[in-house]
Write a structure and sequence with these properties.
The protein is an alpha/beta fold and about 400 residues long. The protein has two domains: about 250 residues, Alkaline Phosphatase, subunit A, CATH 3.40.720; about 130 residues, no CATH class. About 30% of the residues lie in helices and about 20% in strands.
């Protein structure tokens, strides 16, 4: 049983990430009474990031800057000057994160399943009931200023797809996990009446109706040369290869000087011409699969800026609703990624529910805005480097809006 703290002078905040639960499902669950929490919360339309990577989004939330400044671009990134892939950890962040900044200010912080939090278990949930029990147990002593917790239950086991054209979400929002989540949050809200909440979701997920396999497309078009696959092992990449894909639709040229077997010159017109041919070949392949109207190919210059662009892709494939991306990389399975691709509904919209009695958390429009807002709310005195806090103009236009 959770025990309320006797101290009355604390300004608490609870940040809960519910990756994979879409904003429309959240709203329906509140309206139907299934959730049992959130009636007093204000829903914010918060700009997300392309491509829709939960891990890159969390890095932006925790550092207060965009990927070109914190150095995390997806669920798996490439070790510089190699083709080895790794799942980003705290040591890969190029900026201090919110948890460390708050602790330097003397705040007591508890974390549960949060990416980039040292010493925390970020393994997949064993069940939302167990996660909710652990959350309440972490908060039981009341000796804390901030709790940051994340569950990937709705990411790993998405809510069922709606029939085409249907607006009835009752089959989705009756999911018992939503009720479990609501009960845990409602108990915290009851025991800590002045507690402020931020409820985040890195894009709504659902089983993919269609799947795009970019590395297979590249291999068939002659851009990627590997002795066997799929699954593809980039460590065996041939020096004649000119492009490859990483998760979330990130497309990289095999650049000389950056990759160990680079074959594309990064200077002169070679790189620009290669990108034009790559875009044309991808469009042609997707047209042949009747998926040409469901995607966009966005150059890195429209999505990223900052000192770590050498880690960024040259181009990003953004899919339409109902379409998933599977790079078919063997290493992805080793890192516990889903073997069944999911589509990320309304990928450019990030759900943010703010419940703050004093209104201090309501002025949030982008993911990097969360860190300074929480620091102000907690009266943190430690400084954070927020150069790179603003999204590039093109990225902001692409990301804002939509539900």
């Amino acid at each position: 049983m959770v025990r309320s703290s006797r101290r009355s002078d604390r300004r608490r905040v609870c940040i809960v990430g519910v990756d994979g639960l879409g904003r429309d499902d959240w709203a329906q669950a509140v309206e139907s009474g299934v959730l049992g929490f959130g009636e007093v919360a204000s829903e914010e339309s918060v700009a997300g990031q392309e491509p829709p990577s939960a891990l890159a989004a969390w890095a932006s939330v925790l550092t207060g800057v965009t990927p070109g400044y914190h150095g995390v671009f997806g669920s798996l990134d490439r070790i510089p000057r190699s083709y080895q892939l790794y799942r980003p950890t705290p040591r890969n962040l190029k900026r201090a994160n919110l948890i460390d900044v708050a602790r330097r200010s003397g705040c007591e912080v508890k974390t549960l399943g949060v990416p980039f939090a040292d010493g925390n278990d970020t393994k997949p949930d064993q069940g939302l009931e167990g996660w909710a029990s652990r959350l309440l147990e972490e908060c039981s002593d009341g000796d804390w200023d901030m709790v940051v917790a994340r569950t990937d239950s709705f990411e790993r086991q998405p809510l069922p797809r709606l029939p085409s054209g249907s607006r009835d979400r009752s089959s989705r929002t009756d999911d018992h996990r939503i009720e479990v989540l609501g009960q845990a949050l409602a108990e915290l809200q009851t025991l800590y009446p002045d507690l402020s909440f931020l409820i985040l979701s890195a894009y709504g997920a659902e089983p993919a109706a269609r799947v795009i396999r970019p590395n297979t497309i590249l291999a068939e078009a002659g851009w990627l040369k590997l002795p066997k696959g799929p699954p593809w092992n980039l460590s065996n990449l041939d020096h004649h290869s000119t492009a490859y894909a990483l998760p979330e639709g990130r497309l990289y040229l095999n650049l000389a000087g950056r990759e160990p077997k680079g074959s594309v010159s990064p200077v002169g017109r070679s790189m620009g011409q290669a990108l034009e041919r790559l875009a044309a070949d991808l469009h042609s392949a997707l047209e042949a699969e009747s998926q040409a109207g469901d995607h966009q190919l966005l150059p890195a210059s429209e999505l990223y800026e900052g000192p770590w662009l050498s880690l960024a892709p040259e181009m990003v494939l953004v899919t339409g609703e109902g379409t998933g991306i599977d790079p078919e990389l063997g290493v992805a399975l080793e890192h516990g990624r889903r073997s069944s691709p999911v589509s990320r509904r309304t990928a450019s919209s990030f759900l943010c529910i703010a419940c703050s009695p004093d209104g201090s958390l309501h002025d949030i429009s982008t993911l990097p805005d969360i860190l300074p807002a929480v620091m102000t709310h907690l009266r943190c005195h430690a400084r954070a480097n927020l150069i790179g806090n603003a999204l590039p103009d093109r990225s902001r236009r692409l990301a804002v809006g939509g539900s």
